[in-house]
Amino acid sequence: MSAALHPAPGGRAAWRERWLNWRNGLVADPRFQRWAAVSPFTRFIAQRRAKALFDLCAGFVYSQILLACVRLRLFETLAAGPQDVSEIASRLALSPEAAHRLLRAAASLKLLRALPGDRFALDDLGASMLGNPTVAAFVEHHTLLYDDLRDPVALLRGETTTRLSDFWPYAKGDAGDESACGAYSELMARSQKLIAQDVLDAYPLGRHQCLLDIGGGEGAFLSVVAARHPALRLQLFDLPPVAARARRLLASQGLSRVEVHSGSFLDTPPPQGADVVTLIRVLHDHDDDKALAALRAAHSALPPGGTLLVAEPMAETRGAEAIGDAYFGFYLLAMGSGRPRRHAEMIQLLQAAGFERIRLLKSPRPLFASVLTARRV
Ligand SMILES: CC(C)=CCC/C(C)=C/CC/C(C)=C/C=C/C(C)=C/C=C/C=C(C)/C=C/C=C(C)/C=C/C=C(C)/C=C/CC(C)(C)O
Ligand SMILES: C[S@@+](CC[C@H](N)C(=O)[O-])C[C@H]1O[C@@H](n2cnc3c(N)ncnc32)[C@H](O)[C@@H]1O
Prior knowledge:
Number of helices: 17
CATH superfamily of the largest domain: Vaccinia Virus protein VP39
Low-confidence stretches: none
Strand order of the largest sheet: 6-5-4-7-8-10-9
Largest sheet: 7 strands, mixed
Radius of gyration: 24 Å
Bound molecules: the ligand CC(C)=CCC/C(C)=C/CC/C(C)=C/C=C/C(C)=C/C=C/C=C(C)/C=C/C=C(C)/C=C/C=C(C)/C=C/CC(C)(C)O, S-adenosylmethionine
Oligomer: single chain
CATH architecture of the largest domain: 3-Layer(aba) Sandwich
């Protein structure tokens, strides 16, 4: 970036930068670190910072312990109640020593709880895994992401080919065939359980007559909408191989009332008739030009005054900053397309496509998806 675009700050901002620089010099000084670690005024802060840095160093190890639990079906094994190490070891086909190591590790991560007598039970996080089987599917799927992240600098420099870009063929501009689209469509459909109800709680659709879901995948979101709004007319638009899967799956669920249309929002006009269009987890996996094309497609499908509903993880979501900028930032980099956007960037994009009255709605779990509405001009 040139200095002209980002001139050195003045006033309060300049003072803030000088203070930050002085503070960082102090924190980086080993003598200050030693003093802070023992001083009764600072030792709790120093310990918290050291632990936070250690957790960043160890994050991959923690993830792989979770992967071992998922692959060995440890949470399902303990679903009926606590068991002792030898019982668990024989169920997991591990030696008692290996089982003990895994169980203690999982207990330290609050997945399990260690009980007296070498017995182990689920703890809150292990029980949450049982209640959200989608998370286990993501944990398995992360083997692709972690392969791609083996050399993060090469990834940042665009020097690698990635496994995630094969998993998401449209990220490379390839619509893929039904089998290539099957894996991602199934993963997305399963993970709608974390999103669909939250979106509908944030924006009840009661006043609408017809909803078009652009990039609607296999129709998992629309099947939740159908159950809540029996009278709403429903349309789905997705790439031809995905639309074919949606037609089959929706028919098998008795949901032939969903009209399935196939095409690409890059070159095919979507169907007309909707007074609300949804884009769920579509914009963030496209670069600006294609995201703008998706928004223009939504605009063309709506009448003036029609509503657009966007739901996806966003950057700088309070309490979920690392999920947006770190997890999705690097996930989408490995995928080869898109980036998590900040609220201000979403507003710019939406306005450029002809939307106004853009509102960020209160949603139950914005860490999974923030929900925005906008009005077609
Ligand atoms: C009973 C007593 C006395 C006390 C209980 C105390 C209490 C209230 C405990 C809380 C228990 C509770 C309700 C727990 C709930 C836990 C839940 C709901 C956990 C959910 C976890 C979800 C996770 C970890 C989700 C992970 C999602 C991931 C990794 C999503 C990845 C998405 C991707 C890669 C999307 C790709 C799409 C693309 C391409 C980017 O567009
Ligand atoms: C990350 S998935 C989200 C699917 C679904 N909305 C959900 O949240 O479960 C993105 C979807 O957009 C579709 N898609 C990608 N590029 C498209 C395009 N050019 N035209 C239409 N759909 C597209 C994909 O096939 C996929 O179903």
